[in-house]
Specification:
This protein has 464 residues and is of the alpha+beta class. It folds into 2 domains: 169 residues, GAF domain (Beta-Lactamase); 237 residues, Phosphatase 2c, domain 1 (4-Layer Sandwich). It is 46% helix and 19% strand. It is built from 11 helices and 14 strands. The strands form 3 sheets. A 5-stranded antiparallel β-sheet has the order 5-14-13-10-11. Strands 6-7-8-9-12 form a 5-stranded antiparallel β-sheet, with helices on one face. A 4-stranded antiparallel β-sheet has the order 2-1-4-3, with helices on both faces. The longest helix is centred in the middle third of the chain and has 47 residues. The chain is elongated.
C-alpha cells in the first residue's frame, strides 16, 4: 500500500494591520483621556480651594505641586511679591522642598531695597530668572509671571529632568493657568485684608461718632425767656462742627440757673473727619474751662487762642468760633467772633434781618491776636441764627451753592410764619435738603442753632 501524502496545515490567518493600528489608537486615546481627566481634576481642586479658601498660605502651598503635576515636571517654585513690589519671603513655596532649599536660602538673602531702587519690578524679575537658571543648570526650565490687575505679583518656575525634552504648548498653557489662578488668590487676599481694615476703621469711626454725639448737647437747656433748638449734621460719621450751651455759673440750680448768664458757642474746625473731630473735642474742654472764669467774650477768645496755639500749629489747622453770652433778665447778648460766619438776627419789631459781627482772627493763626467785643439787646420776637459754612456752601445738583441769601430768605419766611425755634430749625434743614437733593450727602458738616426770644401772650380784645 502506498503511504498517504502528508496533510498540509493551512497557514495561520494573518491579523490585519488596520486592527492593530485601531487598538494602538484606542490605547492612545484612553491615555490622553485619562491624562485630561487628571488635569481637569487637578485644576478643579485648585479652583475649589481658590473659591473657598480662608488661608492664603494653604492655597499657595498647593500651587507648585499642581503646576508640577500638570506639566509632568520634576519640581516647581513659587516666589510671590508683596503689594509694594518686595519679595514675600514668608510665602515662598517649592516642591520638592529639599531640592530647592539652597536656592530658597539664596533668594531670601537678596536685598529688596537695592533691587527695586536700581531697576524696579522688571529688574527684580530678571534677577530672579538669572539666579534660578544658574541654580538649576541645564535642565529644562520655564518661568511665568503671576499678574493681578496688570501688576507683577510673583514668578512661577517649573523644572524638568536633566536632558529632558521641552514642554508642549498645552503644558505651558496649564502652567500659565496655574499662575493666573495664583494672581487671583493674591488679589482676593489683598481685598480681604483691606475689607477687614475698613471694617475696623468703621468700628472706630462709629465709636468716635458716639463719643462726639455725647460731647454735643443732646438737648437744649432751659433758659428763662428764650426758646432754643440746635442740630449738627456731619458730612461723615464724625465732623469738626461744634456748638454748645454752657452755664457761666454751673453751681446754680433750678430757676436761678435758668435766669443766670449762659454762653452760646458755634465753631468750626477747618477740615472734616477724624482729625477735625479730635481737635473739636480738645477745644471744647479748653473752652468750658475758660467759661468758668467769667471773663467777657473777647477775653475768652484771647485766652483760648493762646491755649490752643501749640496744638493747632502741630495739626496745621485753624478754628473759627463765635462766642456769646446771654443774660436773661436784661436780654443782653455780648459776643466776640474769631472769623466765624456772622450770625443772623431777625428783628421781630422791624421785620428785618441783621448780622452780628466783631473783629477777630482765626483761633490758632496768631499767638497775640486781639478780639473785639460787641453787645445787643434781644427784644421779644427776635430770632438769633448761628450756622456753619457747611450750610451756605452746600452744593445743589447743578453745582450752585446754597449761599447766605437763601438761608436769609428761608429764615425770614419761617419767622414771618410765627414758628417756634424747633419749627424754624426743621424748616431750614428741609429747605437745605430740597436744594442739595434728598439722596445726595453734604460735602461738609452743617450745623444750625436757633434762639428765639419768647413773646408775651396776646389776649383777645373784648368787643366794644
Amino acid at each position: 500500500m502506498g503511504s498517504k501524502p502528508p496533510r498540509i496545515q493551512p497557514p495561520p490567518h494573518p491579523v490585519p494591520q488596520t486592527a492593530s493600528a485601531t487598538a494602538s489608537l484606542r490605547q492612545l486615546l484612553d491615555s490622553l483621556s485619562r491624562e485630561q481627566r487628571r488635569n481637569q481634576e487637578l485644576l478643579a481642586s485648585l479652583a475649589f480651594v481658590l473659591r473657598s479658601f480662608t488661608n492664603l498660605n494653604r492655597f499657595l502651598e498647593l500651587v507648585p505641586l499642581v503646576a508640577a503635576r500638570l506639566m509632568e515636571a520634576e519640581g516647581a517654585l513659587l516666589l510671590p511679591f508683596q503689594t509694594n513690589g518686595r519679595l514675600w519671603r514668608e510665602q515662598f513655596q517649592a516642591t520638592p522642598l529639599e531640592r530647592h532649599r539652597d536656592l530658597l536660602r539664596q533668594l531670601a538673602s537678596l536685598d529688596d531695597g537695592s533691587l527695586l531702587a536700581s531697576s524696579g519690578e522688571a529688574g527684580l524679575v530678571a534677577r530672579l530668572d538669572q539666579l534660578v537658571a544658574q541654580q538649576w543648570g541645564e535642565a529644562p526650565l520655564v518661568g511665568t509671571s503671576v499678574v493681578a490687575r496688570s501688576r507683577q505679583r510673583g514668578r512661577l518656575y517649573v523644572f524638568g529632568p536633566s536632558g529632558g525634552s521641552e514642554w508642549s504648548d498645552v503644558h505651558r498653557r496649564h502652567g500659565q493657568l496655574v499662575a493666573d489662578l495664583t494672581g487671583v488668590a493674591l488679589e482676593n487676599d489683598q481685598l480681604l485684608q483691606e475689607r477687614r481694615r475698613h471694617e475696623r476703621l468703621d468700628r472706630q469711626l462709629s465709636t468716635g461718632a458716639e463719643i462726639q454725639a455725647q460731647l454735643l448737647p443732646d438737648h437744649c437747656p432751659v433758659i428763662d425767656g428764650v426758646d432754643l433748638a440746635a442740630r449738627c449734621r456731619p458730612a461723615y460719621l464724625v465732623g469738626g462742627d461744634y456748638y454748645d450751651f454752657i452755664p457761666t455759673r454751673p453751681q446754680l440750680q433750678g430757676p436761678c440757673r435758668e435766669q443766670g448768664r449762659w454762653a452760646l458757642v458755634m465753631g468750626d474746625v477747618m477740615g472734616k473727619g477724624v482729625p477735625a473731630s479730635l481737635l473739636m473735642s480738645l477745644l471744647r474742654g479748653m473752652l468750658r474751662a475758660e467759661v468758668l472764669s467769667g471773663l467777657p467774650p473777647d477775653r475768652i477768645l484771647h485766652d483760648l487762642n493762646q491755649l490752643a496755639q501749640e496744638d493747632l500749629a502741630h495739626s496745621h489747622r485753624f478754628v473759627t468760633l463765635f462766642y456769646s453770652d446771654f443774660d436773661p433778665p436784661s436780654r443782653v447778648l455780648r459776643y466776640a467772633n474769631a472769623a466765624h460766619n456772622p450770625p443772623m438776627i431777625w428783628r421781630g419789631q422791624r421785620q428785618q434781618v441783621e448780622r452780628l459781627d466783631a473783629p477777630g482772627l482765626l483761633i490758632g493763626l496768631q499767638a497775640e491776636a486781639e478780639y473785639g467785643c460787641e453787645q445787643t439787646v434781644l427784644e421779644p420776637g427776635d430770632v438769633l441764627l448761628c450756622y456753619t459754612d457747611g450750610v451756605t456752601e452746600a452744593a445743589g445738583i447743578s453745582g450752585e451753592r446754597f449761599e447766605e441769601h437763601r438761608l436769609l430768605t428761608s429764615l425770614q419766611e419761617a419767622c414771618l410764619a410765627g414758628l417756634g425755634a424747633q419749627a424754624i430749625l426743621d424748616q431750614l434743614f428741609a429747605r437745605l435738603d430740597r436744594f442739595v437733593g434728598s439722596d445726595r450727602p453734604l460735602e461738609d458738616d452743617a450745623s444750625l442753632v436757633v434762639l428765639k426770644v419768647k413773646e408775651p401772650p396776646r389776649l383777645p380784645s373784648l368787643p366794644s
